[in-house]
Amino acid sequence: MNAFINLKLQSNDSFEVAIKKLEEIVMLLDEGKLTLDETLTLYEEGIRIYRYCNRKLDNAEQKISLMMNENKVPFDFAESDDFKGE
Q1: How far apart are CA 25 and CA 62, in angstroms?
Q2: Contact 42, 28 (CB under 8 A)
Q3: Could you tell me which residues come within 8 angstroms of residue 24 by beta carbon, excluding any fewer than 6 positions away?
Q4: Is the pTM of this model over 0.85?
């Protein structure tokens, strides 16, 4: 199980690093070559990483929503005059 130490979520991991770790965990679980204990350990870590990533996405969505409301910027940027001619 020490072989999976690099897949543990670290406090300084970015969203992108966490997603890569989650992808690797899913790949290892899909292979089906792990012991039951290894599978449970990786599954638990995968759930932790999933929740971390989900929180990061929720926070980003809230920030964008606040910015949109504060600046009263229309969400559909495609119709904005600023982008015509590009």
Answers
A1: 28
A2: yes
A3: 7
A4: no
